[in-house]
Amino acid sequence: MEQINALGRRKAAVARVYLKEGNGKITINKKDLEQYFPSSMLQFIVKQPLSKLGVEGKYDIKINISGGGFKGQSEAARLAVTRALIKINPEDKPALRAAGFVTRDSRVVERKKPGRPKARKRFQFSKR
């Protein structure tokens, strides 16, 4: 089996995934998954699509992530892994969609508006 590429985005994070058959090693930015994401919750998020399909030890995954914070990066990686798994076996798509892994979460930070301290917050109103 040749290498499968996929892209995932979340907030400002972009994750590129390279997936090939192997023994379940996950590498992120040339570091081990446990080293890159010390939090077990973030590791769980990245592995969710694999555990949903029961293929944890079947593929070697290399991920390049840039931008965003660690939460956005982990969710971008999850989307990219999901897309790569769907490229391998399109029949898995309904199961992954039911779990909510296929949909790109398009919520991003709203921009700051002029004349305001933040996006929606206003300066204190003074009548006199």
TrEMBL record:
The keyword Ribosomal protein applies. Gene3D superfamilies: 3.30.230.10. Residues 107-128 are annotated as: Disordered. One of its GO terms (cellular component) is ribosome. Keywords: Ribonucleoprotein, Ribosomal protein. The keyword Protein biosynthesis does not apply. InterPro entries: Ribosomal_Su5_D2-typ_SF, Ribosomal_uS9, Ribosomal_uS9_bac/plastid, Ribosomal_uS9_CS, Ribsml_uS5_D2-typ_fold_subgr. It comes from the Bacteria. Residues 113-128 have a biased composition (Basic residues). PANTHER family: RIBOSOMAL PROTEIN S9, SMALL RIBOSOMAL SUBUNIT PROTEIN US9M. Belongs to the universal ribosomal protein uS9 family. This is Small ribosomal subunit protein uS9. The gene is rpsI.
